Amino acid sequence: MTELLLSPAMGQGLFEDLGTPLHDVTFVVVDLETTGGSPHESAITEVGAIRVRGGEVIGEFATLVNPGTSIPPFIQVLTGISNAMVARAPRIDSVLPAFLEFARGSVLVAHNAGFDIGFLKSAAAQLNSPWPKFTVLDTVTLARRILSRDEAPNCKLSTLARVFKTETAPDHRALHDARATAEVLHGLLARVGNLGVHSLEELSSYTSRVTDTQRRKRHLADALPTTPGVYVFRDEHRRALYVGTSHNIRARARSYFTASEQRSRMAQMVALATHIQAIPCQTVLEAQIQELRLIASERPRYNRRSTRPERVHWLKLTVEPFPRLSIVRDVRDDGASYAGPFRSRGAADNAAAAVFEAVPIRQCSGRLPLRPRESSCALADLDRCFAPCTGAQSREDYAELAQRVARALTGDGAEVFRALRARMHALSQQERYEDAAAVKTRFTDLVAGAARMQRMAPLAATAEVIAARRGMRGGWELVCVRYGRLAGTSVTPPGADPVPFIETLRATAEVVPQPSGPIPAARHEEVHLVLRWLESDGVRIVDIDGEWSCPVGGAESARDRFLVTMVGA
Q1: What is the pTM of this model?
Q2: One of 23, 172, 186, 313 is an active-site residue; which one?
Q3: In a domain, 183, yes or no
Q4: Strands, DSSP E only, in 313-359?
């Protein structure tokens, strides 16, 4: 059944900002009488339509149709249309084009629209005539969403006509039923109008799942700007409930009070909200960064993403006489080699296991074994135990193993990656495909974690990067990044000289102290957004204080090269 169909161009609407006010919408309410219930086996006997706009009737269309077949007796009794009445009536091949011309540019409305629109579409297909892409509104569906069972025990047209006290009583004649349906439509529009539904887009998305209380809170978004930025829903104590970002703050905030928002927890959030704070931003990147910072600092209860950015894991090659791999929660300025961050302990474990597949570095901690099959050893006995554990015959041999691991984490890991690929190939040759797939998963996690660190570390050491990208409306988007942290953004007007704006940005951007250690002066999620913007098409580096580069044989290049090879294998 067709119900509340939207035109393909309608996405998440901007409602009153871009929506069509209902008083400006032309509705064509249509009703058909037919010889039966199936559009493939039956034919149209009568078409009635009424064209209305702003509550006023501006045209009517009514005609009998010769179905080209006999009308069943019980249909004649039901509709009052006999074979004699349609004998001299026009055929559908002349009626349909006339009706489509009458309905052009309108929203089609019908009671049980699937039936009427189905017959019209079937007739168009039989005539090889293209069906226009009408927006269709079904008064049955709308009534079910608006009226309670106490008001209307069912949604038959006769029942709704009594509820809304229509002047025209439906009687199974097309024009009369179309007039009654139009009056029912106006009654339904009056109901939702009192709830703040004033545009076609809001009407099309209307549902009783959105409570009246939720809809009445739409006024919280009325004063919000239509610029890019961050919005924060707050409760009566000004505590943050939810933080989001949008190209259009007001349009996005308003969507939380309509059916376009389907998440039940958001309905709970809206019920608690008493205020919406707007933070306009000059660029989308600035808005995304502000969102992350607010979520991390205020930890709103209805946000699920980025509320605990510190809960990540890092893979560390320790600095000690016989270095080993350790999974840690933070990165220190201790001269160790790190990879990460990993979003789960399991991914970090996989990365460590990948290293163990390729390099026989020790797996014991000096107190407890990393794996059940390995025996524990005391730190004082490492000089005697490293040889059987790792195969190294001297401290120098072991130091070379550790250097191989360090290169895989922070530089050229080609040697380790080749060893992993050889291991996968050998397992596949032995038809141990599950074991080969496990090695591939470990390899993927290792390369991903190493690539993240190798991309962040150069930015962490760069005192300042100023970059520019053409804005969508002309001018330039300017970004200042210091030690990996977004320090400021600006936008130049179209046609303006960007140099003064660049100097102003440099002078007014946040002062960012140089971080201690290999990670930037911002959380990893923020750095990821900054890097994604800097690496996007059209970005130009205006000025840089430092060196920003990644190792040629590093994990970033190895990920594409080796994974493509594995897929091919």
Answers
A1: 0.60
A2: 172
A3: yes
A4: 313-317, 325-328, 337-342
